[in-house]
Design brief:
Radius of gyration of chain A: 18 Å
Distance between the termini of chain B: 50 Å
Number of strands of chain A: 0
Strand content of chain A: under 5%
Strand content of chain B: under 5%
Shape of chain B: globular
Oligomer: heterodimer
Order of helices and strands of chain A: HHHHHHHHHHH
Largest interface: A-B, 48 and 48 residues
Distance between the termini of chain A: 34 Å
Radius of gyration of chain B: 22 Å
Strand order of the largest sheet of chain B: 1-2
CATH architecture of chain A: Up-down Bundle
Structural class of chain B: mainly alpha
Number of strands of chain B: 2
Number of helices of chain A: 11
Order of helices and strands of chain B: HHHHHHHHHHEEHHH
CATH superfamily of chain A: Ferritin, core subunit, four-helix bundle
């Protein structure tokens, strides 16, 4: 039972990192500024690194599994990432805002995960936190730059907020395995980090001259953590897994 | 000092292997040749991100995905060094990029071929980066300082790129029959375009003679190409694959490999814009640039606001 909880919880963390990495990597070669093409690719690389450490750990608890079977041979319903990370890149404003929301969440999450009773998860969190600190700084700077840039960039940020806000609630709505993991002292209670997350978002939004987003009376979409994804997810996996599906059992 | 005297100093520096630096006097034609060559090189790095970038989302394992992503990112970094080197000659990055988008500036034709299978990612690393390295190693000793120094940094990373390409093909060559076919097919399609990367025969190369005198170039197209063939003809044996040239044969007398004639009609066609992906590559670059315009504008608008606020703050403090 404990084994299964750790397995599911670890997969959830890994899937978040991998799917956002996959999305961000779509920018590689197509970024608006060469330096930022490099920056978003860097973030993507950090996230793949995190995903790999987590999958390798999850694979230890599952007979015959490897990081690649976990990433390439599970279908949509088995993926446990939150809906936010699978949303399309859209324009640069949407990519930036998605990163800012997620990295800020991941920052507070990993900060606490460092105290996990599970030594491996604690170690991965500690190592990743350095990277995530940079992701938060980079994306915050861009939120401010775009919010307080031109009229067009400001409007594009408002539009991005419209697109993405409904997917932020899920970050703080624990799935069953998260609650079990909290009970075991392994996982982080996401309810606990909601306040800090909101505060940080409001601070950065204020500096960006963007209106403070409100949670009251706004419908929040959820489901990704238990495998009920948006329709984008099937296409992400179809593309990402195509080689492993077309040539099963090969070494690459 | 007269132009003749300045030119004399310039040439004596070239003779003595003293690097020419941005603030030194240099003939206009030298500057122009360098701007053309370095910017072309920069564009090749940036356009070169596209065919490989095409496989990032589909890389067959997480490890391969991470390596490929890092590799394509390196190319963006190389583009940056080279655009900076061009700027030392008085041409802005914007101007250089505008010339690419208008079709005035060229980039390496090799990137106008499509990447159809995962094998192509291996072949590009091994053959295309392999060919590029030979050229770039020579350029580490080129006469213009900033270009030579950029090349030293680039070469370090390129040898890792070539190894990763070879490593991909090695895995394929030791895999299933389908993987072996994928490997041979990729080599077949990339071999001749790679040979074309060294440019026309020395007898046909218009810019070569002057560039050699100025020590911008230090080996001829045909010399470099021969070096490449000799190297690859040996390495392909390790893969247990073949090169698609029935004239390829070791020549005891010359101590080099003989090889068949390049299809120059194809070469010139691709240079002129008729390669399989010329249009897609330029379209992708223009699209990224155009769609990024509002981002660049926002960044400078914000920077200007910041500066103004800081200045107002300083004024208040002084008052």
């Amino acid at each position: 039972m404990t084994k299964e909880i750790i397995y599911n919880y670890t997969l959830h963390l890994a899937d978040n990192a991998l799917i956002l990495a996959q999305r961000n990597s779509e920018w590689c070669g197509h970024g608006p500024i060469l330096e930022q093409d490099i920056a978003i690719t860097n973030i993507s690389l950090d996230l793949i690194g995190q995903a790999r450490s987590l999958y390798q750990y999850a694979a230890e608890g599952c007979e015959g599994a490897t990081e690649d079977t976990l990433a390439y041979l599970r279908d949509v319903r088995a993926y446990k990432n939150c809906l936010l990370v699978e949303q399309p890149n859209g324009d640069w404003a949407q990519t930036i805002l998605r990163q800012f929301f997620f990295s800020t969440y991941q920052y507070f999450l990993y900060q606490r995960l460092q105290q996990s009773a599970d030594a491996t998860l604690a170690a991965i969190a500690e190592k990743s936190l350095k990277e995530v600190t940079y992701h938060v700084r980079w994306s915050s700077e861009w939120v401010i730059r775009l919010g307080d840039g031109t009229g067009e960039s400001h409007n594009r940020m408002l539009n991005a907020l419209d697109e993405l806000w409904a997917f932020t609630g899920e970050l703080f709505t624990p799935a069953g395995y998260e609650m079990e993991a909290v009970k075991l002292g392994i996982g982080v209670d996401v309810n606990e980090i909601k306040g800090e997350w909101e505060q940080r978002v409001n601070e950065i939004f204020a500096e960006a001259t963007l209106p403070s987003p409100t949670t009251e009376g706004v419908w929040m979409q959820a489901g990704g953590k238990t495998g009920v994804h948006t329709e984008h997810m099937g296409f992400i996996l179809a593309e990402m897994q195509s080689m492993q599906r077309a040539y099963p059992g090969c070494e690459w | 000092m007269s132009v003749q005297e300045l030119e004399k100093i310039f040439l004596s520096k070239i003779d003595q292997e003293i690097k020419i630096e941005p603030k030194d006097w240099m003939p206009d034609a030298y500057r122009k040749t360098l701007v053309r060559q370095i910017s072309q090189h920069a564009h090749s790095e940036i356009v070169g991100m596209l065919p490989e970038g095409n496989w990032i989302s589909r890389a067959p394992s997480l490890k391969r995905k991470a390596i490929l992503l890092a590799k394509v990112q390196d190319e963006a970094g190389h583009g940056l060094y080279l655009y900076s080197a061009t700027e030392t000659l008085g041409t802005t990055r914007e101007q250089t990029i505008t010339d690419l988008h208008s079709g005035k500036a060229k980039y390496s034709s090799i990137f106008n071929y499509p990447t159809l299978t995962w094998g192509d990612i291996g072949a590009i690393g091994w053959l295309v980066d392999g060919a590029a390295i030979l050229n770039q190693v020579m350029l580490c000793r080129t006469s213009y300082g900033p270009y030579a120094r950029a090349m030293v940094r680039i070469c370090k990373e390129e040898s890792f790129h070539q190894r990763q390409g070879f490593d991909i093909l090695m895995a394929l060559s030791q895999g299933t029959p389908e993987q072996r076919d994928m490997c041979q097919d990729a080599i077949n399609r990339w071999w001749w375009p790679s040979l074309m990367m060294f440019g026309p025969h020395d007898s046909e190369s218009t810019n070569s003679e002057q560039s050699t005198k100025w020590k911008i170039k230090r080996m001829s197209n045909d010399e470099l190409r021969q070096k490449f063939v000799d190297m690859i003809a040996e390495q392909v044996k390790v893969l247990n694959m073949t090169l698609p040239d029935d004239k390829l044969k070791w020549n005891e007398e010359t101590k080099h490999y003989d090889f068949g004639e390049i299809n120059w009609t194809e070469f010139w066609n691709v240079v002129k814009g008729n390669g399989p992906c010329n249009k897609q590559r330029l379209d992708a670059r223009r699209k990224a640039w155009d769609e990024g315009a509002w981002v660049r504008e926002a960044a400078s608008a914000h920077a200007a606001k910041r500066k103004m606020r800081e200045e107002t703050k300083e004024e208040k403090q002084i008052a």
